[in-house]
Amino acid sequence: MKQSCAWKPSLRYSPVLMILFIVIIGCAMTVGSAVAATPKATEMWNYYQATNMYGCDISPDVAYVAGGTYNGKVFLLTIEGELLWTAETYSPVWGVAVSRGGGYVVAGTDIGDLLVYDKEGDLLWSKRFKGIIHDVDISADGSVIAVACADGKVYRYTNLGSEVWGQSMSSAVLSVSVTADGSLIGAGTKGFLIRVLDSEGQKVWSYQINGQVFGLDLSPDGAYLIAGGNDAYVYIFDDAGKIATQLRTVTQVNGVSAALNGEYFALGRGDRETMIYDVDGMPITQMSAAAGVNDVSLSPSGGFCAVASSDGRLYLYSLPVEEVPVETATPCPSDTPVIAPDGEGILSFSSAPSGATVYLDNEVKGITPVTLPLPPGQYEVLMRLDGYNDWTTTINLLPEDTVNVVAQMTAATPVSTPVPVGFLPVLGGLFIAAVFLLRRTDE
Fold first, then answer.
1. pLDDT tens digits along 306-346
2. Model pTM greater than 0.85?
3. What residue spans of 62-185 are helical by DSSP H?
4. Which residues neighbour 167 within 8 Å (Cβ) at sequence distance 6 or greater?
5. In this predicted structure, what is the pLDDT of residue 104?
6. Which of 203, 201, 164, 207 is nearest to 188 (CA)?
7. Which of 118, 208, 297, 396 has the highest count of CB atoms within 10 angstroms of its CB?
8. Choices 3.40.50.1100, 2.60.40.1120, 1.10.3720.10, 3.30.300.30: CATH for 326-408
């Protein structure tokens, strides 16, 4: 009899408990759906050396990745991670840059050497400066080279080795960037100064922050500049030098990168994290290395990010954004160039990872990487690879033009079904009903 009475309170509350259980499950579904929908970066590959990686750069056509190491090596990889060549610099490499088609690879070293290599890794020319070269950059076509030097100057050079100008920045220049067309050069200093210069070396704008400027990058079109350093802040400026966004990063920022139109920004931190933000400063995704991150590089549209870390690895990530095909009419010639018949154009396809099937207007044309001479016209492109989402775009091919198409293949993931918005009021109603029944039961 006592046992029967003991169960009565539980039976009285069972409807209430059932409603609360439904509410809890519904909330869990909502949260789980939101978490499942969060985009993630995908590691495509990493290249290892038994030393610290200090520099990295993705070519403007998203076909190559250059890197530099503490033990005095500069190297060039394909976007698929294949090593093409390595050169000895006999001094730590602090900065690297690569032009379209891998035509020029530039490196700056601890003993003050500016080194310029061709696509095969042969040294074209070099110059010794009176100070450490902390950073270098190069325009998309390779005609303009920017140099950040510890002698307190930022320099503009031609690809043939001629100095155009050198402008004093009052303290050691730690970071430098040049726009894709070479019209603007930005520089950051040990004395907390950020300055943007035009093609004649004249100041466009400047700004003083609260720390040494370890990382600085102009977006390829010059619309935005991102900078960060040891004050644990990141500053995003518009083309007039006004702060568009300012982010507190908690720890030191060693490297930054900006995509076209400032759509995406990357920053590499001393605490091993690489963060990706949009133009409003909202986080997109993040990646972790096993040691501090020294440099980062975004592809022009933000679809790929290279990361150089003190863990000895150069990483390439595919980011959860769309990579726009990069068109170029005068690519650097390959070892076995494809020559199109008169009046035709060339479509050159590659993907990360490689091995994707290429369809043009629903017809199979080959496996990436593949280069095709084709009549001018509009083509519907589909690239398909097992385990990855389909990649599509539309290309307009002009006579005697060449278009390089690089696809970032994102790994296929199970699609989570989001909880309908209309279900949330139902959950709220059930919760209120549970409270009402509980009060009635107590009475």
1. 999 999 999 999 997 755 544 443 344 434 454 555 678 88
2. no
3. none
4. 153, 154, 155, 197, 201
5. 98
6. 207
7. 297
8. 2.60.40.1120
